[in-house]
Design goal:
CATH superfamily of one domain in chain A: Electron transport complex subunit B, putative Fe-S cluster
Family (chain B): Belongs to the NqrB/RnfD family.
Subunit structure (chain B): The complex is composed of six subunits: RnfA, RnfB, RnfC, RnfD, RnfE and RnfG.
Order of helices and strands of chain B: HHHHHHHHHHHHHHHHHH
Strand order of the largest sheet of chain A: 1-4
Order of helices and strands of chain A: HHHHHEHEEEH
Subcellular location (chain B): Cell inner membrane
Shape of chain B: globular
Largest sheet of chain A: 2 strands, antiparallel
CATH topology of one domain in chain A: 3-methyladenine DNA Glycosylase II, Chain A, domain 3
Helix content of chain B: 55-70%
CATH class of one domain in chain A: Mainly Alpha
Function (chain B): Part of a membrane-bound complex that couples electron transfer with translocation of ions across the membrane.
Oligomer: heterotrimer
Largest sheet of chain B: none
Number of strands of chain A: 4
Chains: A mainly alpha, B mainly alpha, C alpha/beta
Shape of chain A: elongated
Strand content of chain B: under 5%
GO biological process, one term (chain B): electron transport chain
Chain lengths: 205, 352, 696
């Protein structure tokens, strides 16, 4: 009876076949979706790993991770001045997009790394900087002198503003012989001057 | 007095790129002499026109790119391209052929990719192929070698100049095929018969009149460069070995479908010029020694395939360009094993 | 000079040819003969000796003398800090004139702490404890002696020798190699040591072999261009009747003196990437280092001098000198007839791997095997770099089979991952690739810079991970505090509700009691009452505490009276009572004190708010700073400073009125701000001026 009907209307067989296929593939896809579900949101983790973790808030987020989440939700990737162009390039590389230049609205890339330094004899022990520090890098208690743990300081500069007696300075990190490194040669004018071959291409290219 | 501060090493080998290029040019002399002896003034005129045209194109593009013209011209690389192109083109080719070739080599094949060191293809071979496809008649019109001409005469300098610049037909009196052409057009005969009845073959010392000397001359120049350690033996030797093996394999005991004797393949056409002056071009070849062996072998095999079963009588340019394509791929799979590592590792592996 | 090894007599297996081979290598002009025409000379004692505290690999040493101290030659002046460090000894007698930052002999040209000694010219030294029976002593004792003598690698890197002689316990050492290769051009310090002190070299091989538990093979590797040194060693060896030491020779090729290359030459083995030779059972020491260790043990002499080659056409005398460590290079060069006008660079070490010095005032240190003062023509600056033409010569000569071209491209493109995949960190920086590069590309500098950047990046990664941890921990802490607060509030609410319910139940059970109890059913009034109670609380509490103190005091006096009355009988129970009361009194007093002090700090706002408000402020500031010109920025800074100053003034005035204890601090901040303001103003005016002249 069924077979006779199908024979009479061949289009039914096509419909059945397609429907069957749709069911099978749907089942496979559904199974795959459950079985191979990706836990968590690894892209946020990866983005967070690329950000400099200064937690400075210059991007407009309260910390680096929220900004990573922001980027994952389509926010611009050029809002991180402490990371600078290197970070932007790394993120662009990760996301497979073109690297924009740093959005100066959020600040400029600093050429030198700094850490906070409290002039301790001027500190009145108000704890305001301790509260502002995102990485707990300031030690001290009420009415006690405070001090910055230089190794922990990320140089985010958030403690400078709250200080009522203006005793916090951002001082450049002193380069030591152990972290000195060679610089990449400047190929456009390598030691050319003494041969009278002052290459000028660097200025025009 | 400020002391100079620089990274080690503080001493350098005295040979720079320009010197190496100059040596290459010097090494072409035997080949050039042989060509001039056999075919007359044509080669010299070719080289001169090519040199002027390449230098002019190079200077022009450098100017456009705002580079220091003198500094880059001094590296002699344009001159090498000019010499190789001039030697590869048929003598007495019209001047505009040479100029178009030179401009193509420098502008299209070299400077558009970023200049010396950055071109993926051999500039002279690009130019050769462009010309061969665009102007097949001019590019296949060779004259017969001096000792085959009835009165042992060659076009005079005046005749040469008028052929090159006025397109006069004086040259028609001297035209003759190349051995590879001859061989290709006698597909119905046994190898033995061709060698017996064709003057290009039966007047020869080894295999083909004139061309054998040209190839031997280029071989001499190449050995000189090898001795000067300008390049390593890997690519040219593997190319010649591959070509020989192919021609032995398909010699077919000289039947009418034979590909020809190994000696003919080694000593006619552009074999030696290609092996020692084109294949060894470091810029467009594979990098490691292992890679160069594969690269050279690929060229040797391709030359044979195109010569015997392809449409063109000679195939060095095509084979080189095809292997230029493959060079990065070869490089990728032929990394040397670094000291202290158990095996060569893929360069794209991810850090774990 | 250049007799081949074939002419040497190969007798009793004393001299053997190395069978190994390493990839690549170059043959630069040797330039060794000019410093070998004269025997080792000596230099007078300089007026000043400079001892950098970190002239070795590892942690800088700690000075144990102070300025003004008199020291003798051989006296220890700085102590090693930890395992990877080395002691430092004065090389002549004199007075410590300073412990200060001086420019170090280092490629960076940076300064570091140095002990400076003003010599007295008497060259007195401490008594050296000689020791003849060192082969009877325990290896650990001998290593301690070497450590005390401050012996570090004299070949270049300055690795503490004692550490190298104590290989990891699970590596069984079967080969000791003394490295007398000295493959770099110009340097002949080890050559002359082997030539003139061959007996000591052999004795040191014996000593080190003993320390390492008498390994099966003891090899001395010497390049065949030092045939006279090979002969000297061979005859010394023959006289010493040592039968397990072998002198290995091999053709001259750079860099056969590299540790890994020499191991490959002599044993055919390769040190696995990232591992140390000890993992193959091999320990290698430079001959100079070995002799220094021998002198430390047998003669009791600490490392205070070494042979240094002074060479180069800018010197009138090119030869080896036995120099005191700490001798300023300028002094040493002057003794050798230095012509500064004919010299534009000074190299410490060899021409292949040495580094240029920025200052002549730097001293000779333990690892200074050579100083090259070339004339301008001798080692000319390389011509400008051209594009790489991929000639492949660099990979031909690379002794570790790298692909220098690829490394160069990735270094240039800052593709650090690829560079590492191409085994950048296996590069030994020997300079062979740069040497042969026909395009004069400073390849080694690229690799060094890239290695540095990668290391820096790794450091930063560690630091940023750490910062993230701390930040997240802080967040969690706040979240926890917040949760606790909420939980407390909830608990209070519940308790209140429960109390209300109880009340209601009570009411329901016993309706007439309603009249007696105060009407408390309204929650608002209840809350107000509670708040009021709380407001009253501090005063009430204080009063209560004071009361309890008073009562305790009263009771105590009473009890004391009682005690006095009934002193003869039943003494104990009463005294116990007294003690009890005393304790109670103390407690009450403590509580009071705590209470009064806690009152002051209790105005803590919620911390989270402070942090986020700071972020807000910073955000606003940077947003405002955007797209401003230098001048606008300065103006902006000026106004903000002015505002801050005003605030500070206000604070100061407040403080003055209150007679605040921090008055000085506030005053100070005001003056500081005024100073800053002034600075900014001058800067601004300068910038305006510059604008006017179109300079900006």
């Amino acid at each position: 009876m069924m077979i006779a009907l199908i024979l009479q209307y061949p289009v039914i067989s096509a419909v059945i076949a397609l429907g069957g296929l749709a069911l099978i593939f749907g089942a496979v896809l559904g199974f795959a979706a459950v079985q191979f579900k990706v836990e968590g949101d690894p892209i946020v983790e990866q983005l967070d790993a690329l950000l400099p973790q200064t937690q400075c808030g210059q991007c407009g987020h309260p910390g680096c991770r929220p900004y990573a989440e922001g980027i994952a939700n389509g926010e611009a990737i050029n809002k991180c001045p402490p990371g600078g162009q290197t970070t932007i390039n790394a993120i662009a590389d990760l996301l497979g997009i073109d690297a924009p230049s740093l959005d100066e609205e959020h600040g400029e890339e600093a050429d030198i790394k700094t850490v906070a330094f409290i002039r301790e004899d001027e500190c009145i022990g108000c704890t305001k900087c301790i509260q502002a520090c995102p990485v707990d890098a300031i030690l001290g208690a009420a009415k006690q002198m405070h001090t910055v743990i230089a190794d922990e300081c990320t140089g985010c500069d958030l403690c400078v503003e709250p200080c009522p007696v203006d005793c916090i300075d951002m001082i450049p990190v002193k380069q030591s012989i152990s972290d000195w490194k060679w610089t990449t040669p400047n190929t456009n004018h390598i030691i050319a001057t003494d041969k009278g071959l002052s290459l000028t291409e660097g200025q025009t290219v | 007095m400020g002391l100079i501060n620089a990274s080690s090493p503080h001493t350098h080998h005295q040979r720079n790129t320009a010197d190496m290029m100059q040596l290459v040019i010097i090494a072409t002399t035997p080949g050039f002499v042989a060509l001039s002896y056999l075919f007359g003034w044509g080669t010299l005129i070719n080289v001169i026109i090519a040199a002027i045209a390449t230098l002019a194109s190079e200077a022009f593009v450098l100017k456009l790119r705002n580079r220091r013209v003198a500094f880059y011209l001094k590296d002699n690389s344009a001159l090498v391209t000019a010499v190789l192109l001039g030697l590869a083109l048929p003598p007495y080719a019209p001047w505009w052929i040479v100029v178009i070739g030179a401009a193509t080599a420098i502008i299209l094949a070299k400077q558009l990719y970023g200049g010396m060191g950055l071109n993926p293809f051999n500039p002279a071979m690009i130019a050769y192929v462009v010309l061969l496809i665009s102007f097949p008649i001019e590019m296949t019109r060779w004259i017969s070698p001096v000792n085959l001409n009835t009165d042992g005469q060659l076009p005079s300098l005046i005749e040469t100049l008028s052929a090159v610049f006025n397109h006069s037909s004086i040259i028609d009196a001297y035209t003759g095929a190349t051995p590879l052409d001859v061989f290709k057009n006698h597909s119905g005969l046994l190898v033995e018969q061709i060698h017996h009845q064709e003057p290009l073959f039966n007047h020869s010392v080894f295999v083909s009149v004139g061309w054998e000397w040209i190839n031997l001359a280029f071989l001499a120049g190449g050995l000189f460069l090898l001795q000067q350690r300008i390049f390593t033996w890997h690519a040219p030797v593997s190319m010649l070995v591959a070509l020989t093996l192919m021609s032995i394999l398909f010699y077919d005991s000289g039947s009418s479908t034979s590909g020809g004797t190994p000696l003919m393949h080694l000593l006619s056409g552009g074999t030696m010029l290609g092996a020692f002056f084109i294949v060894t071009d470091p810029v467009s070849s594979a990098v490691s020694n292992k890679g160069r062996i594969i690269y050279g072998a690929g060229i040797g095999i391709l030359i044979y395939i195109i010569r015997v079963w392809g449409n063109y009588p000679d195939a060095v340019a095509f084979a080189v360009l095809l292997m230029n394509f493959a060079a990065p791929f070869i490089d990728y799979y032929t990394l040397p094993r670094t000291y202290g590592h158990t095996k060569a590792e893929s360069a794209t592996r991810r850090k774990d | 000079m250049k007799t081949s090894v074939k002419t040497l007599r190969l007798e009793n297996n004393i001299i053997a040819k190395a069978s190994g081979e390493f990839h690549g290598g170059i043959y630069p002009p040797e330039n060794k003969q000019q410093s070998m025409t004269l025997p080792v000379g000596s230099l007078p004692i300089p007026d000043e000796l400079i001892f950098p505290l970190n002239q070795h690999m590892g942690a800088p040493a700690e000075p144990i003398v102070s300025v003004g101290d008199n020291v003798l030659g051989g006296q220890k002046i700085a102590e090693a800090v930890g395992m990877f460090s080395a002691t430092i000894h004065a090389s002549s007698s004199g007075t410590v004139s300073a412990i200060e930052e001086r420019i170090l002999p280092h490629p960076s040209g940076m300064s570091g702490l140095c002990i400076v000694i003003q010599t007295d010219g008497k060259h007195q030294h401490i008594d050296f404890q000689t020791c003849d029976d060192y082969l009877e002593q325990e290896p650990t004792e001998l290593i301690e002696k070497i450590r005390e003598a401050g012996v570090t690698g004299l070949g270049g890197a300055g690795f503490p020798t004692a550490v190298k002689l104590k290989p990891p316990a699970n590596d069984i050492i079967n080969t000791l190699i003394l490295n007398g290769t000295e493959c770099e051009p110009y340097i002949t310090a080890d050559h002359s040591l082997m030539l003139y002190h061959a007996e000591e070299v052999i004795a040191s091989a014996k000593l080190l072999s003993h320390i390492l538990g008498n390994p099966e093979h003891v090899l001395i590797g010497v390049e065949d261009n030092k045939s006279d040194a090979i002969q000297a060693l061979a005859s010394a060896l023959k006289n010493s009747a040592m039968n397990n030491i072998q002198i290995m020779t091999f053709p001259t090729k750079y860099p056969s003196g590299g540790e890994k290359q020499l191991i490959q030459l002599l044993t055919g083995k390769e040190v696995p990437s990232g591992a140390i030779p000890a993992s193959l059972g091999i320990v290698m020491q430079n001959v100079g280092t070995a002799v220094a260790a021998y002198r430390a043990v047998a003669l009791g002499q600490p490392l205070t001098s070494r042979i240094t080659t002074l060479v180069g056409e800018a010197l009138t005398t090119q030869r080896n000198y036995q120099v005191l460590l700490g001798t300023p290079i300028e002094f040493a060069l002057q003794q050798a007839g230095f012509d500064a006008s004919n010299n534009e660079r000074l190299i410490m070490g060899g021409p292949m791997m040495g580094f240029t010095l920025k200052e002549l005032t730097t001293p000779i240190i333990k690892s200074t095997n050579c100083i090259i003062a070339p004339s301008k023509k001798e080692l000319p600056s390389p011509p400008p770099a051209q594009e790489c033409i991929r000639c492949g010569l660099c990979s031909e000569v690379c002794p570790v089979s790298l692909l220098p071209q690829q490394l160069y491209w990735y270094a240039k493109a800052e593709d650090y991952e690829r560079a590492q995949n191409y085994n950048l960190f296996d590069c030994i920086e020997c300079g062979a690739c740069s040497y042969v590069c026909s395009s004069n590309i400073p390849l080694v500098q690229y690799y060094r810079a890239t290695k540095g950047s990668i290391r820096q990046q790794e450091q930063e990664k560690i630091k940023s991970d750490h910062a993230r941890q701390r930040f997240e921990f802080r967040q969690r802490r706040f979240a926890k505090a917040e949760a606790e607060k909420i939980a407390k509030r909830e608990a209070r609410k519940k308790a209140a509700a429960k109390a209300k319910q109880l009340q209601a139940e009570k009411l329901a059970r016993n309706p007439e009691a309603n009249k007696d109890s105060t009407p408390k059913c309204d929650p608002v009034t209840e809350a107000i009452a509670r708040v009021k109670a709380k407001e009253n609380d501090p005063a009430a509490q204080q009063a209560r505490l004071e009361r309890s103190i008073n009562s305790a005091k009263n009771r105590m006096t009473k009890l004391q009276e009682k005690l006095a009355n009934a002193e003869h009988d039943k003494k104990n129970p009463i005294s116990a009572q007294i003690k009890q009361v005393e304790v109670r009194l103390q407690n009450a007093e403590k509580q009071l004190a705590e209470f009064t002090s806690s009152e002051v700090v209790d105005d803590k706002p919620t911390i989270q708010d402070a942090a986020s408000s700071a972020i807000e402020k910073a955000k606003a500031n940077t947003a405002a700073l955007a797209n401003m010109s230098e001048k606008e920025k300065l103006e902006k800074q000026l106004t903000s400073l002015k505002q801050r100053l005003k605030k500070a003034h206000q604070r100061l005035a407040d403080a003055e009125q209150e007679n605040n204890e921090h008055l000085d601090a506030f005053k100070n901040s005001v003056t500081k701000l005024e100073q800053k303001l002034k600075d900014t103003q001058t800067q601004l005016s300068a910038s305006t001026k510059a604008d006017k002249y179109g300079l900006n």
